[in-house]
Amino acid sequence: xxxxxxxxxxxxxxxxxxxxxxxxxxxxxxxxxxxxxxxxxxxxxxxxxxxxxxxxxxxxxxxxxxxxxxxxxxxxxxxxxxxxxxxxxxxxxxxxxxxxxxxxxxxxxxxxxxxxxxxxxxxxxxxxxxxxxxxxxxxxxxxxxxxxxxxxxxxxxxxxxxxxxxxxxxxxxxxxxxxxxxx
Length: 183
Fold this sequence. Notes:
Layout: H1 10-20, H2 32-45, H3 55-78, H4 84-105, H5 112-131, H6 134-144, H7 150-157, H8 161-178
Helix pairs in contact: 1-2, 1-3, 1-5, 2-3, 3-4, 6-8, 7-8
């Protein structure tokens, strides 16, 4: 396993970061790209501390760095506006993201080759999602990862349901063309 090229995991980390900052109260505080860049910088700086032996462990280690960086940034940004009603949903978002990743990467019944194939598919999917135009990417992620209905997505984005449905259809069509495993 080559840990030198952590940049390979940038698209996957961007998806994880996008999921963490879904709360609208945080969107003006910092961008997901900033969070991912800081995560990779911290990962490169601490690569000597990584003790795992598999790619799944490396991805989980990077996700832990991402979550810790996210928490640190939230604490810094919200220090003067301490609001318990914000902190609980943030912690829940971090935990839910970790649980979903664990299920995807390390199903106990899977053989090592099946787990490796699943990780590779997940990385290719994240890269394909990152190539979508931003508005399509946001709609696809809200629908496919968060299972939000079109109506709720349209409310969050301040767009009509028809516009959101169109963005979703075009985004999914583009994903099917560039990523054959997408359904």
